[in-house]
Amino acid sequence: MSALPAGLLLLAGLGWLGLLFAAAVFGERSPLRFGRAWPVVYSLSLAVYCTAWTFYGTTTQAVRSGWPIPPTFVGTLLIFLLGWPFLMRLVRLSKKHNSTSIADFIASRFGKSSMLAAVVTAVAVLGTVPYISLQLKAVAMSFGVLAGASADGAEPPAWGDLALYAAIAMAVFAVLFGTRRSSALEHNRGLVLAMAFESLFKLTAMLALAGFVLFSLYSGPADWAEQTAPIPLSSTGTFLTLVLLGALAMFTLPHQFHIGVVECRDEAHLRTARWLFPLFLVLIGLPTLPLARAGESLLAGHGVPSDLYALLLPLSDGRSELALFAFLGGVSAATGMVILASLTLSIMIGNHWLTPLLLNRRVAPAGVLRIPVRMQRRAGIALVLLLAWVWNRLTGTTEALADIGALSFSGLAQLAPAVVLAVYRPGLAPRALLAGLLAGVAVWAYVLLVPLLLAGPGAQGWIATGPFGLAWMGPGGLLGLGGLEALPRAVLASIAANLALIALVQQLRPRHGEGAESAARLQPDILHELARRFLPHSRIAPLFAGDDGPGELEAAVEHELAAVVGAASARLLLDAARRRAPAPLETVADMVGQASEQARFSREVLSGALENMSQGICVVDDQMRLVAWNRPYLELFDYPAELIRVGRPVADLLRHNLRRGLIIAVSEDLDAAVERRLAHKRAGSRHRIERPWPDGRIMEIRGNPMPGGGFVATFTDVTAFRRAEAELQRINETLEQRVSERTAELESAKLAAERANNAKSRFLAAV
Prior knowledge:
By secondary structure, the chain is mostly helical. The protein has helices spanning 6-29, 38-45, 52-65, 71-81, 84-96, 102-109, 114-146, 162-178, 189-217, 221-227, 236-252, 254-262, 267-285, 288-298, 309-316, 320-359, 373-395, 401-412, 416-424, 430-453, 457-465, 486-507, 516-519, 524-534, 537-545, 550-565, 567-578, 582-611, 631-637, 650-660, 670-682, 719-766, and strands spanning 616-620, 626-629, 687-692, 698-705, 711-717.
């Protein structure tokens, strides 16, 4: 097998990453280009789930299990086909609570506990770091194999580790991709488009590999089936465990939660993903068994690891261009996951580790940590990738990629009970969730993580016999589950411990003082001061304009603050205000001050521009709620004062206008007419119509979708223009008639003159 030039591999890899970055920039600068196709773009972006593990690790899964589709994909298919109501409810609740991450969502449903959010973040980091290290290892391994690097199994020095340079390159691209925006709630259309683009690329690469195996190495599927040995099916326990982990991964992997829930602009997009994403998984999963059986038949005898079949099968046949294509597919899959995962973890680290530290004067005095939001995220990305590289160095180079992926999936599965209970049982005590989560992670680490980190001749005996010779307490036979393989044993024991501790602690009596702070309501002047520090003026006035009681007002302010600093940190702010502790407020104000001032300046400029326009303007968000308007709009529709406020459902305005006859409903009832117009706005359909107003004016109404979701409508008085146009048309229509009349008059005058002239001639002749 001839190696490929290292320079070519490096140039091709960087070129593809540059193309991916260009796709993201294009998505940001041309936000309306894919408006109608956005449900498809969103569905394809979910395939960031198919990482480098799909290219290399699932082949090993197929070698071990013999199933035509990877077991983890089977679980994902089941959650989309059967767990549809759960996913829809998860998206709705996340939007309701302004959740920016899985930690934020769990904390917001269980008392806004900052401790719970911090622990969830720690579990997310612990579970995701090995998965990121898998991507680094896959890129370094594939680069080394294609470039002909030595494969003697010895660990290279740190400076010669290809994974280090892969981590640096991915950190640079993650910073460029993910930190261009400060708001975690603002939809990143460029990032989503780039993920969809790389999904199509890696799908094409996998299908090309399948076509090569079936029609180049063999004469077709029948010939392949005849010449390759069937792979025996794996044990039922391991298979079912991987199916379960694949189902849970769709809402427990932090980056999958971000792309699937946080970036979901409309529930209708999830309906498209319900059939399109499973179809994608089937297409990208089917090539794994042909690759596995062909590799076992042609390469296994030469000592080639099954992780490398996707690269070495085409290379062994002299198809270096296909091997390069497969390499780029793996790089694309790895980079997409690393960018999204590191960005998501950096948001969680900033919101749930750094911000609580800034709020605690005993740890960080006021004014010491003044880190802008973007710098926090860049530092978080660098930290996550550094940890992933260190993990890769600690665990060595011999572990199969499939094992690393299963380790991460099983660790992150500990978040599943908390997420499911957050959806269906949000009233549980935060300490119960905290106890269950810690217990589950401890059991998982004891059964899977400890044997991996302590691998060695001396440790193996202790792991097998258990502490003090008690085999039932050892990782290999915990609780008498020694008959199961390590992965099923770890998942079963850890999830059982997780649920048991949740149930046990929930039954205990509440600790003294738990929930006492919620009874002490903050005064409106304190809430107003909090809002003034962090919220724009346009958001403050509607909050304090109504007659809400102290409880409702406090909840409204907290909800708005959650969109800035996260739900748990918003609760910490209110708690600090209850203790009359001003320093934490100053600290957080310093932290977000720069972004807040820039945003406030932009809002003031925009507000001034809107108010001085002659057109009426109305803006609604992606949830079809009113967010902005101007004075001409209010004068045009003459709304009651109590009807107009930020957050008012636009359906209420449509219903009001239909009743007044400002909007004409053809032959449908009121609710049907409202729903039809809402569907038109949700679909992002542009429109331009002219409508007569009751006072005789004519209004031109234009509607356009906004880049981040939502809709903007403008109302222009075109009465004078239309009247002038009608007058010109009337003049044009009567012009020909008047010309004919004048011509006839001239002809008549001419005849009269001729008759008079003839009469005169006859008179003169007679004389």
